[in-house]
Amino acid sequence: MFGINATADATNRLAVQSDASLFNNAGKGHQIKLNKATTGDTVSFLFQTGWSGRAEVGATGDDKLHFKVSPDGSTWREGLIIDGAAYISLGGVTAPYVDNSYTLGNSTRRWSAIYAANGTIQTSDARDKDLVGPLSSASGLVDTIEPVLFRWKVGGNVQNDDGTVAEIPGTRIHAGFIAQEIKAAMDAQHLDFGAWGLDDKNDPTSRQWTRPDQLIAVLWAALRETRAELHALSSRVTG
Q1: How far apart are CA 102 and CA 150, in angstroms?
Q2: How many Cα atoms within 13 Å fall on the side-chain side of residue 2?
Q3: CB atoms inside a 10 Å sphere around CB 145
Q4: How far apart, in whole angstroms, are the C-alpha atoms of residue 70 and residue 77?
Q5: pLDDT in tens, 108-133
Q6: What is the SS3 assignment for 180?
Q7: Which residues contact 109 (CB under 8 A, 6 or more apart)?
Q8: How close are the terminal C-alpha atoms of the chain, in Å?
Q9: Which domains are assigned to the chain?
Q10: Which positions fall inside the Peptidase S74 domain (predicted)?
Q11: For 153-211, how does the pLDDT look when each residue is reduced to its tens digit (9 = 90+)?
């Protein structure tokens, strides 16, 4: 047992009381090893306030990496778990640190698919919006934009054990739109809204994207225009 400004005991055979501790390299890097006897044991770092646990990081009870938190030292919640296959499990609500500030992925770091029990909720409170006006020329957009069937040139990427990334050719046929055609249709109708955009608004050659959720409003407006035309025709016939 060994203590530095502290008393070691049978449980804590090395005890250090200090404002800081330094483990320096001997010419290259430095690695600290923590080893446990069996998978079911625990090897971890425990963070305490007044000797009461508040956070724990380590392989606790299995060989997965656990990040745990506690409000009182007795009730523990799993915040994040990473297993040997690099699968990440979250144990709570995930939210950005600042509201409406960060994206989930980008044009060159895309998620291949998102699984959800329910659809995406998009906030739409009138108190958050400055109304610009009604959506005009919706029928013109619908007439101009042609839905297409397509196959991705690169259907996905797989990371090899050596860290390299290999492209997988696309095989599945999808239905959708072409961003350039949506842009051309909007220009023809003298419209500019968020159904289309550039990854880098300062670079006209950057990748283009679409937002299908905003096309729902276009379809709704076009349907209203069509219904109004049908109502007018019906009134002429019956009149």
Answers
A1: 30
A2: 1
A3: 20
A4: 6
A5: 899 988 999 998 888 999 999 999 99
A6: helix
A7: none
A8: 103
A9: 32-104 (no CATH), 136-238 (1.10.10.10)
A10: 124-237
A11: 999 998 888 889 999 999 999 999 999 999 999 999 999 999 999 999 999 999 999 99
